[in-house]
Amino acid sequence: MTTRQAPSPEELAALRERYRSERERRVRPDGAAQYRAAEAEFGYFAADPYAGEAVERPPLRDEVDVAVVGGGFGGLLAGARLRQRGVRRVRLVERGGDFGGTWYWNRYPGVHCDVESHVYLPLLDETGHVPEWKYAPGEEIRRHAVRVAERYELYADALFSTSVTSLTWDENADRWLVATDRGDAFLATYVITATGTLTEPKLPGIPGVEEFAGHTFHTSRWDYGYTGGSPEGGMTGLADKRVGIVGTGATGVQVIPKVAEDAAHLYVFQRTPSSVDVRANRRTPPAEVGADRPGWARARRENFLRLVSGEPEENDLVDDRWTASAALLEKLLPSFRRPRERREYEAAYERADAAKMNELRARVTASVEDRELAEALKPWYRYACKRPTFSDTYYAAFNRPHVTLVDTADTHGIERLTRNGVVVGGTTYPVDCLIFATGFSVGASDIHTGRLPVRGRGGADLLEVWRERGPRTLHGFTAHGFPNLIQLGSLQNASSVNFTHVLDEQAVHAAALVAAAEEAGALIEPSRAAEDAWLATLARDAPDHAWFHAECTPGYYNREGRGRPDGPTAYPHGAVAFHALLARWRAERIDEVLVPRRARES
Ligand code: NDP
After folding, report:
1. What's the cofactor (predicted)?
2. Is the full-model pTM beyond 0.90?
C-alpha cells in the first residue's frame, strides 16, 4: 500500500488486531507502580549537576507582596505579568540553581523544543527576541528564560537552590508564611504556585541497581563531567565506553543519535517504539515569520493554538507536523464530545489515523537498512495514543554498526542490572554507563503529591480537604478556604501541546486577580458555590475518551494502560474556549472572588 492511500476494510481489521496484540504484550499488572521516584536511596538521580557549590546565605525573615513557587516559564510569566501590573516585591523560589525549569534541568545532548520556537518562547513581542531556528536548541530557550527574568527584574528577590517546604495561612496577618529547606520563613500576601507537571524524574523499578558498578544518571541531570562535550555533542568521554540508554520517548529520540555519534558502543533498550515524524529544522529569517510587525508572536501562537485545538482556522502560519495532525484531531475530538455519533466519527478517524501511521511506518522502512531491525522500530498503535516525536537523524543512527537495538517488549522492560550489565530475556548486555531516558512522574506538582503541604484557614490541609470528594477549585486556580493562593498548572483548566502559551494565559489571569484584590483591598477566595458551579461545568460536557485510551498501548497518557483518571479533570471545550471564558469572567465577574480582609492593616 502506498502511503496516505485510504486503507481497505481488511487492512483496517488487520491493523486493529495488530494494535490489540501489541498492547497486550506491554500491559503490566503493576501499572504506574512499576516506577520508582528519584528520592530516598535513588535521590542521587535528582541531584543538581549544574548548580556548582552551594552558596551559604542567612535564612530570610522578611515580607514580600507575592511569593512564586517555581522559576520555570510558569513562575517567570507570573513574575512578568505581575510586574506589568506594577507589583513591586515578587520573590520566585526555585529548586534549581537558576531560572528555566524544564530547560534548566534538561540539557542532554540534542535537546530541542519540539514545538516551533516562535510560538513556544513566551514574551517575544515584549522582549524583542526573534528565535534563530524553527525548533530552538534547549540552551537558547534557557537563555530566553534568563532574558525574561532580567527584563522584568526577577533576579533581585529570587531564591535559588531552595525548595518551599510548607505554606501556612496566618489569619491574624492575612499573609502566607512561606517556609523553605534553607531555613527561610518569610511572609507573602499572595502565593502563586508554578511547580510544573513533568518535573520529577522517574526510574523503572530496577532490581540489582545497588549491584551495578557502572556509571548511571537520568537524562534530566546529564553528567557532562563524565561524558564530556555539550548539548551539541563532542562527548569525548564516551569514546571508549559501552553506553546503554533505557527509553525511546521524546527525550530518547533526541538523545540517541547524539550518543551514537560518540560512544564506542550504544545499546538502546526499547520497550515501545515512538512514532518519529519529519523534523525539517532550519534557520528562519525574521522576515519569514513577520517579526517586523507589532504583535507578530501573539498572532502566530493564537493561530497555532486554534489549529492544534481542532478549532476552525483558515491560515496555517507554523505549517509543521503538529498543525498537519490537526486534520486527525478534527475527526477524533467530535468522537469524544458527541458520544451518540461516536461510531461515525471514529470510523473516519480510524481511516485517517491508519494512513498517517502507515506513512510513519513506511518512513522506518525507507530509513533503516536491516529489515528485521526496521520492523522492530515500527510503532503499532494509533497516532494520538503516545506523544508524537520528530527527528531526521534517529533512524539513521541504527544503521551504524556500533548501535544495537534491544527490544524489551516481551519482558516488559529491562529485567535487572548486574554488576556490569543489563539483563533482557536472559541475555546480559555489558555496559559501562547506563542512562535513563525514562521520563517523569506525571502531574506530580508538589502540592498534589503532598511534598509541599498547604494549610489554609483554620489550619485546614489542602489535600485533606480534597481527599474525600476530589480536588475543588474555581477555574483550577483558586480554592475556598485558601485565600490569596493561586495555582498554575493543568488541574481543572485547559491544556495544549504549546504549554507555555497556556501558562502565559494563566499568568495574565493570576496577575489580574492580584491587581483586583489590591485595588479593592480584599482577599481572593472563591465561595463553595463558585467551586460547585465550576465542577458542574467540567462535568456537564465531559468528553468520553475512556474507550480510546483503553485501546492504546500503555504510557503516561493512559496511566500505563489503565485508562484516564476518573472524573472530569479538564475544561471540556479546549484551551481556546477556556481562554475566552477567562477573559469574559475577568471583565464581568472578577469581584465574585473578592472577600473582605480579616486582619486590620498595621
Ligand atoms: P516518556 O515517559 O515519554 O518515555 C519514557 C521511555 O522510557 C518510554 O520509551 C518507556 O517505554 C521507557 N521505559 C520506561 N520504563 C522502562 C523499562 N523498565 N524498560 C525499558 N524502557 C522503559 O519520557 P520522555 O522523557 O521521553 O518524555 C516525557 C515528556 O516530556 C514528553 O512526552 C514530552 O511531553 C516532554 N518532552 C518534550 C520535548 C519537547 O521537545 N518539547 C522533548 C522531550 C520531552 P514505554 O513507552 O513502553 O513506557
Report:
1. FAD
2. yes
Ligand 1: distance of its center to the CA of 525 in Å?
A: 38
Range of the domain at 522: 63-200+442-593
Residue 228 lies in a domain: yes
Domain presence at residue 296? no
What is the DSSP code string of 480-518?
Answer: TTBTTEEE-SSTTS---SSHHHHHHHHHHHHHHHHHHHH
pLDDT of residue 353: 93
CA distance 41 to 50: 21
C-alpha cell at 108: 542532554
Residue 289 to residue 23: CA distance in whole angstroms:
42
Instruction: Determine which residue's CA is closest to atom 5 belonging to ligand 1.
Output: 438
SS3 for 376?
helix
Helix H or strand E encompassing 324: helix 321-324
Report which protein residue has its CA nearest ligand 1's atom 28. 439
State which residues of the chain have pLDDT below 70. 1-5, 443-444, 564-568, 599-602
Which atom of ligand 1 is closest in space to residue 248's alpha carbon? 9
Say yes or no: CB of residue 204 within 6 Å of ligand 1. Answer: yes
Q: How far is the CA of 438 from the centre of ligand 1 (A)?
A: 5
The total number of structural domains in the chain stands at 2
Candidate of 42, 216, 271, 391 to mutate for ligand 1, largest count of ligand atoms within 8 Å of Cβ: 271
Same domain (yes/no): 473, 568 = yes
Same domain, 85 and 95: yes
Instruction: State the Cα angle at 545 between 495 and 377, rounded to 5°.
Output: 85
Task: For residue 229, give the H/E element and its range.
Answer: none
Does ligand 1 come within 6 angstroms of the Cβ of 497?
Answer: no
According to the model, what pLDDT value does residue 566 have? 56
Integer Cα distance of 131 and 121 in angstroms? 8
Residues 16 and 144 in one domain: no
As a dihedral over the C-alpha atoms of residue 405, residue 408, residue 410, residue 411, rounded to 10 degrees, the angle is 150
Q: What is the pLDDT of residue 1?
A: 39
Is the beta carbon of 216 within 6 A of some atom in ligand 1?
no
Closest CA to 412 of 287, 573, 271: 271
Report, in angstroms and rounded to the nearest whole number, the Rg of the chain calculated over CA atoms.
24
Q: Is 437 in the pocket of ligand 1 (CB under 6 A)?
A: yes
Question: Which of 387, 407, 424, 500 maximizes ligand 1 atoms within 8 Å of its Cβ, making it the mutation to test the pocket?
Answer: 387
Ligand 1 atom at minimal distance to the Cα of residue 113: 40
User: With a 6 A CB cut-off, is 272 part of the ligand 1 pocket?
Assistant: yes
